[in-house]
Queue: 4 jobs
Job 1
Amino acid sequence: MGNYKHHVTLPHFPRANGQIERAVQTVKNSLTKAAEEGKDLYVVLLDYRIQPAKDMPSPAELLMGRTFLPSYPGQLKPTFDVERARKTLKKRQIIQNKYTNKHATMLPVLHQNAKVWFKHKMKEPWKQGTIIQVGPQPHSYIIKGEDGGVFRRNRFHIRQDNTENDNPRWSRTVEDLYNRDATEISRVPNDSADSQINASPKTNRSNISQQFQVPIETFSEQRNTVV
């Protein structure tokens, strides 16, 4: 057999296999439109396979390296410039990658034995676990959940667990109250990919005044005792 390597994509992360997902979307849309118009599905698939792009050969010709049903053996050889087609495809992928990463954010790298939150299922709450293996694919992590289950997830679906680094509460004065950071980080992460990389959270003074209200009498007593 040939020298094949099977690279599986991460669960619940279809964008890691974007080229195939885009082809599936195109075929689905074509089949839906064909069903609405009463066309033969196989004819629609044939048109998709043999239709060349404006700057590249058709998908079938790229796959086989030749046109179909040759009338003589000479047509078995590619009729297009293979190297040029490869460079054109590479250039197109670079442009697509540029616009895709324009608004992307690089998340911090996590390490083995790190405590994390991760998504078990996309519509369920976050779960806690421990990273037991990093990789081998990029942005891939093997996580052991608190229930003993082992899961493979992309970095996009993982948040670092900062609860073990929480400092214990200490007695604060009124000055300490307004000098400290006004917002405490939530123990359970939200679904935003940027939630854990914002350097300074927003201040909510209304919550401060409701949580730490000092009676007016206390200030009056302190003012009267000042020499």
Job 2
Amino acid sequence: MRSPGRSRETKNPKYGRKAPARASVSETDKKFNLIKTITTMKYLIRSVKYFIALCVLYLIIMALMLLTNTSVLTPSETFSALVRSTRGQVLIVAVVLLSALYPKFGFIRRQEIGSLRKNREQILNAFVSEGFKPVRESEHEMVFRADSLFKRLTLLFEDEIRVTQTGEWITIEGIRRGVARVYYRLQSYLERTRNENE
């Protein structure tokens, strides 16, 4: 009779000896695969959003040209030229490539020496001055979103920016347009605070 504490074994057909059974997927592997899947889905969603935004922008430009009578082509002729001409096909390929690469280059991470606790006021002021408001806050993280629907729309609803504490560094992560502006503002606020404390 097999003892309860003994691991399950299988026979090796080549040598007739018993070999340990294959271990099941660990919880760490499951979490890693889940994170990988979520990251991939997020990347695809961002690409699709940007593609739709570029298409909408193109349609708006075409509509304005028709309304102002600056277009010599009808809507059907414009669409036909876009699909059939070499220039139009190059434009379509460029839009697809831009959409595919947008998530890779459209989101950045910036770091600055500081403390979430000690420099909380400067962080809040930097975000508020750039049109963001705090939505969540903990000991090691602050999360901000755009404070108006119009700003959220211009950022394709990818307006969430996270600020975390990494050692002695403040890390700001999110959409490039938002992070770059906030980071520049925060740098000046922190520099001013350091000069005042000297």
Job 3
Amino acid sequence: MIYEKIHNYKEQLSNSQIQSLIMPNILELCANHRFSNMILELRKKDNYTYRHCVGVAVISFLMGKWLGLKEAELRDLAIAGLMHDIGKIKIPDSILNKASRLSADEYAVMKLHTHFGYEMIRHLPEMTEQQALVALQHHEREDGSGYPFGISGEDIAPFSKIVAVADVFHTMISERVYKKPAPLYQVYREIYQRASGLFDPLVVQSFISNVMNRMIGNSVLLSNGQIARITMLHPDDLINPLVVVQGQYYDLRQSDIYIVDFIPNLRKPNRKDLNLR
């Protein structure tokens, strides 16, 4: 199972889909001696980063599929996601595995992983320039607030825009020594709200639309303590859907009430549950 099917991603992607659609590409990559040595070195150095890279590869593949990428592009994107943090091999363990906040000097060193990764990948004949750019640009942001160069908009390569969202999403849902994973719905909300500044709006819209559509009928905890079910999405506000509580419908766009998180393991309703005619 690939990193617990991406934390709470049980409804999004089945284990069989991972095995049939994504793993062959990752296994093909790892069969290459140079790639496998890099991946094994990364796993030995920092197991979290290794698991994070696998998670980002899977999420990036999903996002690319939803965006309509072709099969060859999906393969290249998944591999770029797998290799996006490979430059961390060259970051000192004392910084990479530090359990507290990095100092300004330590953070400056950490940011060098983007340059290191780019140089490592671009010298591999099996890898493309766009894949190398993912290692370099996955911390760049649409408004120019990212690093290493502070570029923005169209200056950021398409694969880099996708992996940037996958990277932040997987980081936020992951548990570390110094932080617990954020509630999944909170992560969706934060990424959706960042679409107008930090991330490519088209990438975010596609991602959130697809994951939220798969959540229609699921139970959620509301900020007033009640349990509701998502019944319909609003295209103009995907994060504040129409919900039903004991037969009463609420449009969360027009309410101070909001969704706190999903409630797992509750069955989806039938038409009678929703009082549908």
Job 4
Amino acid sequence: MTDTPAIDTSTASLSFSNASGNAVSNGRLLRTSGGQYVMEVDNGGGNYQYYNAAVSATSDGTSNALSIVVTSASSINSFSAVNSVTGTSYITLDPANVDVRYTDVDGNSSNDVLKLDADGNYYMDVPNGNLDKTATFVRSDSSGNLMLKTLQGVGDVQIYFQAALSSVTDASTNFTTLRVAETGSEIRLKHPDDPLATLDRAIGQIDSQRTRLGAVANRLLSAQTLQGNATAAIAASRSRIEDADYATEVSSLSRQQILQQASSALLAQANQLPQQVLKLLNA
């Protein structure tokens, strides 16, 4: 939206600067019969100097400011007083101070839809089921009325609606609520303005989905690897436990066998003692 309404110079805040950027305190804004803006400077004693000037306007929603800057020192003989300023301006919105609320033709409303793309252009991102709907302002070639150009997801069907606008600004917080609504019957156009851009968006969406699926697959593979490692660790632990129990049993068996052999040897020695005593007596 670049149409700028007339700004009353009697209520706006005016600042004057010379060609070097220094402030001028005794300047006055004029305009020639050809529409060129001129700065009048009183050098004292009724000696007025006139300079070609450029005018820029800024607004915070509640007050207007005009900056008049000298562009050359040419003398102007034909001019008239300026009561208002019209023309084209560029509007920069601060999303922190603006809430754009969007209402579609079915009456569905969405809040805070204002977004900024990579090129620095504003657009409206409207949730619409599984596909996001984007909308931008355009001018009708036939009537010049403001319209909404909408696009569902990355499809190639553009739908146009007439736009209804209203805004409310809280002067205490300087916060503006802008309401945008689709009105009238839709106008469908099959062919996009830029087919390559549409194709790029579709490819980008596919790449994004593949990236998300790849990330999920990697997480599942990692979980599978961890589960395999845990199974191997459990098997190794079980093997160590079983080996430890077998060694204990073998050690116990060996001890019992040694004790049995020692007992047998002692019993054999005890059985030989009476025979040795008898041999001594007989001798």
